[in-house]
Amino acid sequence: MNYLAHIYLSGDDRQCQVGNFIGDFVKGNRYEDYPEKIRQGILLHRQIDSFTDSHPLVLDTVAMLRPEFGRYSGIIADVFFDHLLASGFRHYSNGKSLRCVSVNFYYAMLRYYPYLPSRVKRFIWHFISTNRLMRYATYEGLNESFTIMSNYKIPALRPEETIAFLRQNHTELEERFAGFFPELEAFVENVEI
């Protein structure tokens, strides 16, 4: 899963959200250097990734993407699923507003800024100022995210082709996500950290 899902699955605890957001940037046992709730978020992030990476619907989605996107298929699947969560957020969140969740998270990132890994500090201002979480809900915003990724992280990523693939396969991807995400939510409810 990508950023939005990790934040959402942290519940309303702001420190846990921050920890879950930075989970990919904290390696090994470095999580022990953080306050308890941020540490729990980092560990929750790892549990979510483990569940997601072995789920049959996610594996099938990655396989569906592989002929077109090769080794970047897993990353693209994560971002597609964040788009599907964002675009149907009120449905998946039982009526919560994506705007409210986003703004509260941005405030949490500023409040706990000293705890952010240096790599996160380098992009978080742009992430907040461009309202990335809200932008995930639209094709245009998603295209911007893929463009950022292609410029700074994955030069071989082709944003226009990636969005075209999403448009062409939206219904099938949405069905896969609708089957997968409730199972992930149930898993997270029972995780003990």
Automatic annotation (TrEMBL):
Domain of life per record: Bacteria
Molecular functions per Gene Ontology: [acyl-carrier-protein] phosphodiesterase activity
Keyword Zinc: no
GO BP annotation list: fatty acid biosynthetic process
Record key words, sorted: Hydrolase, Lipid biosynthesis, Lipid metabolism
Keyword Lipid biosynthesis included in the entry's annotation: yes
Name of the protein in question: Acyl carrier protein phosphodiesterase
Organism in which the protein naturally occurs: Paludibacter jiangxiensis
